[in-house]
Amino acid sequence: MLSTTRHMSELLLIRPSWVRTGFAMMAATTSDFDRNSSRSNSEMRPVAEKVATTTWRDEPAPAYAERGEAARARRGRIGGFSETNFTDDPQQRKRATMSTTNPLRIHRETPAYWRVVFDYPPFNVLDGTVFQALQDLLGQIEANSALRAVVFESANADFFLSHFDLTGKLGNVMSAVGPTGLPILFDTFVRISKSPVAMIAKIRGCVRGACSEFVLACDMRFASRENTRLGQPEVGVGLHPGGGGTERLPHLVGRGRALEIILGASDFDGETAERYGYVNRALPDAELDAFVDTLARRISSFDKRSIAAAKRLVNEISLPPADRFLDAFNSFGTALSWPETQTKVGELLKRGLQTNTEFEKRWPEVLDTL
User: Fold this and answer.
1) For residue 162, what pLDDT band results from cuts at 50, 70 and 90?
2) Are 123 and 166 in contact, with CB atoms under 8 Å apart?
3) Rounded-to-integer distance, Cα 243 and Cα 306, Å
4) Which of 40, 58, 64, 65 has a Cα at 20 to 30 A from 238?
């Protein structure tokens, strides 16, 4: 197992080319992936199969603490993990919290029901800081035997979570591994899906790319009918979805509509997203909060073992195998280094991506002009 994990670490370690755009900091060279491609499927699949069959049990905190120690020891052996970016050490977390703004707030409505509010101005961009906060949150969720429902929402009505950071602030989310043995990006999404807690996304504003993949990893999605822009615009930037979009969307909306969403690279409003099955329901904005709150409180009143068992059974027939996620992840890593991708991202940044609010709201509209 150690040798398999070591090879997986080598395969997933992103070696930046450090060109002008911060986006290139995520990019592995094509040769790095080509050298490893012959062994990727055979050596990474055992880890993926282990994750695919994992059942998250309602364990007490000490069991999760022991799991964290084992994961930390494993990371120390294989390398490629920066404790300054992702750490289980309480003191380092405290120092990190003091030096950066926490991008999310936890509102414990009841012992069984939490609301998690993204508040990371100006655009709620998904970067290394947000992933660290999500990793910390998942640790708290997994250690809490009373919790039954979590609702994710945003303090910014224009941006739920906007998109992957394109300015070089991702840290090591592409190369570090989490408790599941998967890269931090996938570790976060898989743990959300496999948690025994009901995970609900309450969507207002823009949700694109990896952030769309975040809400797809949640168990349910409810959107504002008037104020939702949901999409997978990666193809328009010279990429393809790499965080689960190509694996999850066909199961939800069907093959044809999945390809329309992915290849068209356009935004979808709440009403269309509901009709396609991208979200459970699109409600009038004035009714969204009350509807989701009522549902979450109802779920949180039920026995946790029955919630966990029902969710596990649904997962068994509806979630793609973890090795398919890894195939997409590796292909995405290769695409990051394509010259046309670098050119298009550079142009988007020049036009105002991540700096200009109005452009940030509507940038998929210009992708066919790049």
Assistant:
1) very high
2) no
3) 29
4) 40
> Which of 54, 31, 30, 39 is closest to 9 using CA atoms?
39
Domain total in the chain: 1
Query: Radius of gyration over alpha carbons of the chain, in Å?
Result: 19
pLDDT digits (tens, 9 = 90+) for 124-136: 999 999 999 999 9
Backbone angles phi and psi of 350, in degrees to 5:
-65, -35
pLDDT band at 172 (very low <50, low <70, confident <90, very high): confident
pLDDT higher than 80, residue 85: no
Distance CA 204, CA 206 (A): 7
Give the CATH number for residue 21: 3.90.226.10
The domain of 108 spans 2-369
- Per-residue model confidence (pLDDT) at position 60: 33
- Contacts (Cβ under 8 Å, ≥6 apart) of 295: 200, 220, 222
Residues composing the chain: 370
CA distance 257 to 278: 10
Residue 252 CA to residue 318 CA, distance in Å, equals 9
- Choose from 10-19, 57-66, 295-304 the range with maximum mean pLDDT: 295-304
Q: Are strands 159-161 and 198-208 parallel, antiparallel or unpaired?
A: parallel
Tokens describing residue 32: 């790095």
The yes-or-no verdict on residue 36 having pLDDT over 50 is no
